[in-house]
Amino acid sequence: MKKKLPAKRYLAQPSTKTALKLKIPAEGKLAPDLQKYFAVCREKLGFLPNVLEAYSFDETKLRAFIGMYNDLMLGHSSLNQLEREMIAVVVSAENRCYYCLTAHGQAVRAMSDDPSLGEILVMNYRVAKVTAKQRIMLDFAHKLTVTPAETGEKDRAALRKVGFSDRDIWDIASITGFFNFTNRVAIATDMMPNEEYLSLSR
Question: I want to staple 120 with a disulfide (CB 3.0 to 4.6 A). Which of 128, 129, 152, 161 is the partner?
């Protein structure tokens, strides 16, 4: 009779933000505006995303991360917020970034009111029930992630053909580039997502 193996734990303990031993200050030691930002996050989400706490070891880096994230994901753009989150998931799926797949997969579930869409985008975005225009957008984000040097005018022309403006192309490229950056930092530091994401919007 085979010996029963202990159940595997696939998640780090909630207190583990990264594999790096960074000197994370007590929240009360942060600048007042950052403390306020963290409080707003808790109010809206019910918890503080681990990525923010991890970045708080350096206020300059934290502000840069927050500023770029808020501009790309929440700022003015013809892309709606769901489409931006879809790009985040497709990029993160190709990079196999557990943190971003977990967090942004949940955002896709919440914004689409479709519990399966986040998972479909993770597994194979090509079979997701999205519009033809969104498919071209995701094809572009995927190619820019996998073979950036092969991305060129033909790909931009395909985006224009389905109605994206040059400003939209800039936004798609910027969101794709941002998540390729954040994926690599999260993977390199073994950043773990909050467990709360897993059960939300199901």
Answer: 128
